[in-house]
């Protein structure tokens, strides 16, 4: 058995970087930029007013001063008037500043009488002007390469005048469940059968991570069936198998794919859940053999498949979900397998993030997995820990808006 960090290094080390494609802004959320996004204009494109009021010379705004309104510059309609001593130009939020003015006098600080205003409160030079390019300037990289695009990034790219973005192609990931006992959700479940939940859970996880998952038909516990299912991999960028990874007489994935040309890199890791994890290449396609216990398959998805996808898409900025919390209960010493305990999180009155592990950590139990907020990370041979000690966690459900 190798340790999980070694396993991760071996999985990600020689994964290829995906090619690129150009997508429209409406398709770009969640994708990974393949090149920096360069601003095609400056923002604001000119000095503009931040308020409704009057473009003035600040020196002219002593209380009681009377100014002549020489023109109006609504947003979208710049004025060609120059503000000179004793004059002002009416403008609104977003209006381009006319020449000669160095401040915006907000209308609340004036009284108006026909085409004249009287200043009730002076204004300082530069006040309420958004200077040209204060947000970004033309040609500036506003979004780096390797960034997963959030809704805010999409807004920034739009503001920078970029309707198209060059992103990494989504990795196509085939997911193959194996096992005579596996039926699909909604099927009748004959005695001894179980619903193959893991493929659907992983497909959802991968889709959210920017991959293009395909769920293959379930393969029986027969070498020929498993091989047959993998013959049409074609342009698949990665194959995930589920189940048949352990040491039982019907755990055939490694042997069956071995006959088809699988070159195994490693099999079995010192991790819980996830011990029988396998990694190799089948005719050049990376293959991750996940354990059948659905919680083990999912945790391996989080710990190995997501980093693999990040490597393939060049994603250097995603939050890996690692965090620190405080244990809410004691934990016994750990054995030789790096553990991932399903736990709930809550804040106490002082704002401390408390992690409470579920009492049962069976890797076939779906409801604690679905209701947990985090995995508590317990390294191999970690000594017993007491409530109040800090622990490392991987948090779930953090949205990247
Ligand atoms: N003698 C040993 N037995 C086991 C060991 C071991 O080291 N020695 N390891 C255990 C560990 S850890 C795990 S994890 C499991 C994984 O074994 P397999 O990958 O061979 O998985 P299966 O036996 O095919 O299935 C295990 C369990 O999960 C159910 N299953 C399978 N596929 C799915 C699916 N797609 N969705 C939901 N549930 C699935 C299956 O019916 C079994 O109940 O091995 C231990 N045994
Ligand atoms: O990987 Mo297994 O889930 O520890 O039972």
Give the helices and strands, then pairings.
Elements: H1 4-13, E1 20-24, E2 37-38, E3 48-49, E4 53-56, E5 66-73, E6 87-91, E7 103-106, E8 110-113, E9 116-119, E10 129-130, E11 141-143, H2 151-159, E12 164-168, E13 172-177, E14 182-183, E15 194-195, H3 197-208, E16 212-215, H4 223-229, E17 238-242, H5 253-259, E18 262-267, E19 271-272, E20 278-282, E21 285-290, H6 294-313, E22 322-327, E23 338-347, E24 353-357, H7 366-371, E25 374-378, E26 390-395
Parallel strand pairs: 5-6, 13-16, 13-17, 14-15, 17-21, 19-23, 22-24
Antiparallel strand pairs: 1-12, 2-11, 3-10, 4-6, 4-7, 5-9, 8-9, 18-20, 20-21, 22-26, 23-24, 23-25, 25-26
Ligand LQZAQKY5 binds at residues 177, 179, 181-182, 194, 196-199, 242-248, 251, 273, 275-276, 291-294, 296, 363-364.
Describe the overall structure.
By secondary structure, this protein is of the alpha/beta class. It folds into 4 domains: 160 residues, Molybdenum Cofactor Biosythetic Enzyme, Chain A; 58 residues, Molybdopterin biosynthesis moea protein, domain 2; 83 residues, Molybdopterin biosynthesis moeA protein, domain 3 (Beta Complex), CATH 2.170.190; 74 residues, Beta Barrel (Beta-clip), CATH 2.40.340.10. 18% of the residues lie in helices and 29% in strands. The protein contains 7 helices and 26 strands. A 6-stranded mixed β-sheet has the order 7-4-6-5-9-8, with no helix packed on it. A 6-stranded mixed β-sheet has the order 16-13-17-21-20-18, with helices on both faces. α1 crosses α6, α3 packs parallel to α6 and α4 packs across α5. The two termini are 39 Å apart. 39% of the residues are buried. Ligand LQZAQKY5 binds next to α3 and α6. The site of molybdate ion (MOO) has 8 residues, from loops. It holds the Pfam family MoeA_C. Catalyzes the insertion of molybdate into adenylated molybdopterin with the concomitant release of AMP. Its cofactor is Mg(2+). It is an enzyme of class 2 (transferase). Pathway: Cofactor biosynthesis; molybdopterin biosynthesis.
């Amino acid at each position: 058995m190798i340790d999980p960090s070694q396993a991760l290094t071996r999985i990600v080390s020689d994964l290829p970087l995906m090619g690129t494609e150009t997508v429209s802004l409406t398709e770009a959320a969640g994708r990974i930029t393949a090149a920096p996004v360069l601003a095609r204009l400056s923002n604001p494109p000119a000095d503009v007013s931040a308020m409704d009021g009057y473009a003035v010379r600040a020196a002219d705004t002593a209380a009681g001063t009377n100014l002549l309104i020489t023109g109006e510059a609504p947003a979208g309609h710049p004025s060609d008037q120059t503000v000179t001593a004793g004059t002002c130009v009416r403008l609104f939020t977003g209006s381009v500043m006319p020449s000669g003015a160095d401040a915006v006098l907000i209308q609340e600080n004036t009284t108006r009488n026909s085409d004249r205003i009287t200043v009730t409160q002076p204004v300082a030079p530069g006040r309420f002007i958004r200077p040209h390019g204060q947000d970004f300037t033309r040609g500036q990289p506003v979004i780096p390469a390797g960034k997963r695009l959030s809704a805010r990034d999409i807004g920034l790219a739009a503001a920078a005048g970029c309707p198209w973005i060059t992103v990494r192609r989504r990795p196509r990931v085939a997911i193959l469940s194996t096992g005579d006992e596996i039926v699909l959700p909604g099927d009748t479940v004959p005695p001894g059968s179980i619903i193959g939940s893991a493929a659907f859970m992983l497909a959802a996880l991968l889709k959210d991570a920017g991959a293009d998952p395909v769920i293959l038909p379930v393969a029986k516990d027969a070498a020929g069936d498993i091989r047959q299912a993998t013959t049409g991999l074609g342009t698949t960028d990665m194959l995930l198998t589920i189940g048949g990874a352990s040491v039982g007489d019907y755990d055939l994935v490694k042997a069956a794919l071995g006959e088809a040309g699988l070159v195994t890199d490693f099999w079995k890791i010192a991790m819980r859940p996830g011990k029988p994890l396998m990694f190799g290449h089948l005719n050049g396609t990376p293959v991750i053999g996940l354990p059948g216990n659905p919680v083990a398959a999912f945790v391996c998805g989080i710990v190995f498949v997501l980093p693999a996808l990040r490597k393939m898409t060049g994603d250097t900025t995603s939050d890996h979900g690692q965090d620190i919390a405080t244990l809410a209960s004691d934990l016994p010493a750990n054995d030789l397998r790096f553990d991932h305990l399903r736990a709930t999180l809550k804040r106490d009155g002082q704002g401390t993030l408390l992690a409470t592990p579920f009492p049962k950590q069976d890797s076939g139990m779906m409801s604690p997995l679905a209701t947990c907020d985090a995995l508590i990370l317990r390294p191999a041979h970690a000594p017993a820990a007491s409530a109040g000690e800090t622990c490392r966690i991987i948090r779930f459900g953090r949205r990247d808006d």
